[in-house]
Each structure stands twice: as C-alpha cells, then as structure tokens.
Amino acid sequence: MRSNISNNKGETALYIASFNSHSDIVELLLQSNSNPDICNKENETPLSRASYECHLCIVKSLLNNNSDVNFCNTNRETPLMRASCHGHIGIVKLLLEHNCDANIYNKDMETPLFRASCEGASCEGYSDIVKLLLEHNCDPNICNKENKSPLAMAALNGHIDVLKLLLKQNCDCCIYDDNNETPIFKASSRGYTDIVKLLLEHKCDPSLSNKDNETPLFKACSNGDTEIVKILLEHNCNPNVFDKDQESPLLKSAGGGYFEIVKLLFEYNSEPNTCNRNQESPFYRAAYNGHLDIVELLFENKCDQISLIENLKHHYFGHHGMDTKELLT
C-alpha cells in the first residue's frame, strides 16, 4: 500500500510521524495497515525512533500493532537500549512488559543495563531503570568488548545507587577490564570515597594494579585524595608498589605537595629513598616543586643524604630559591 512507500532516506510516513510525535497520524496509518517494522537506511524502525525520542503514546500504539520489540538498528541497538541509555523509564517499563530481550547487546557488546549504569548526571544515575532491568533478568556480569562491566561503569561515574543495586546481584567486584582496571581503581581515580568504602565492604581487592602497574593507592596519592589514601592503607594496600616508571605513591604525593598523605605513607612504612627511572627521589620532587615542609618531613623519616647528594648532581632545583646546604645541615 502507498503508506509503506519510503523516501530517499528509507523513511515511511509512519516513521516520520513517529519521529515527530504526531500520534493521531500514527494511529491513522496503523489503522490503514501501515507496516510498523519497515526501517530506514540505518535499520531504524518507527518503534526504535519513538523509544529514543520518548514518545510514550506512540510506542504504545506501535507495540499494540505488533511492532518487533527486539529489532536492531545498524549499531545493533534495540528500542530497549535506546530508551535505557536516555533515561526514558516509562518506555523501558513498557518494552519490558512486552517481553523484549533485556540481554541483547550492541556492536560494542554493551547491554541496556551497561548503558543505564553509565548514564545519568547525579549519584543516582538511572537507578530506577537499572532496577527494572535487573528485575527482568538482565545479566549484570555481561561486559562490553573492552571487558568493562556495568559495575565498573557505575563506579567510574559515581553512581552509588546503581552500584548498590548491582552489588545486591552478587556482581564480581574484582573483574578487571582490558587496562586491568577494577571498579575500585576507577572509583579511587575519580575520588569517590563512598564508593571505595562500599566496594571494600564487598571484599573488592584494593591491591590489584592496572597495565601501568598503578594501584588504587597510587592514583589516590597522585590526586591528593587524603581520605581515600587513608582508607586504602587501612585495608592493607602496599605503599611500596611502583608503577611502570618506578614511581612510588610517596614520590607522587611528595611532588604534588600533599603533606598529610606523605605523613600517612610514612606511618605505613613507605620507603623514602627509592628513585624513579630518571633517578628522581621523593626529596628531589618535593624540593623541585618548592614543598619545603615535605622536604623537612623526608629528613625526619631517614631520607638517605648520600643518595640525595647524588640525586642533586643530576638535577637542578635552585629556581625556587631554596638553599640546599641549609637543608642538609
């Protein structure tokens, strides 16, 4: 019939009406037996587009006329995926009531649950959508093609309410992605203290390193996040694990001027004299950046003066006006 004729973009009259929220026209076309599953050149059906645009009444009409609820576009995105990643909870609920498959993943192997765990601007994220998806047996342990899990993405984006829902499903909280980053590494990197605490309560291992041999403690020290550093040290994180460049948490915090973190690291037996690949010591970094209080603290904690003198032969830091002889006496 003529209502199924497409334009040069593959769009039927039903698709265009669904896109533009013309619900009366959609009803008229469906009553005239327009095919609801004719897709455009991007393999997108009227249902997919209406789900994306949050046109609830049109989605209802299309579903009542047997539109394929699991039809995927060229990116292998279902209508459920389109609605989930844009926070359209009413449409998500409607699609799930029509028995859509909640575990179909897109070309990047991302499920609707994965996308819902990523999105949202607040600490809640799209927790209502995540809850619905879990109630409809969406698998919380399906990872994307980079082996990132919904739990890891919730941790990365600070969505603590989503994280709580996922942890109730016994998600593997130590799973690491292609960069060897765990959920607690991501939370520590972003400064999400409450999420770090929650993951530790669920026995997430805080000692695992990423591909660059950076631990969660290393990232927290680099960022000057005193509270997270304290929490990780209390959970037996080793302060003497170095990254691929032989930089220690102490060297990073000394160079950054994070006095309280340096004090904490010494309380947990951090080694003060280890240099990185460029033969830079924690003392050198602190002195070069003008952190006199940390330089003095390093001396109090048995900084090796012989190594220090050798270090000074290789590096110049007088541009801060510090008197090296005075520091050594």
Automatic annotation (TrEMBL):
Keyword Ligase listed: no
Cited InterPro entries: Ank_Repeat/CDKN_Inhibitor, Ankyrin_rpt, Ankyrin_rpt-contain_sf
Keywords: ANK repeat, Repeat
Start and stop residues of the ANK repeats: 9-41, 42-74, 75-107, 146-178, 179-211, 212-244
TM ranges: none
SMART domains xrefs: ANK
Pfam families reported for this sequence: Ank, Ank_2, Ank_4
Keyword Endoplasmic reticulum: no
Protein name per UniProt: Ankyrin repeat protein
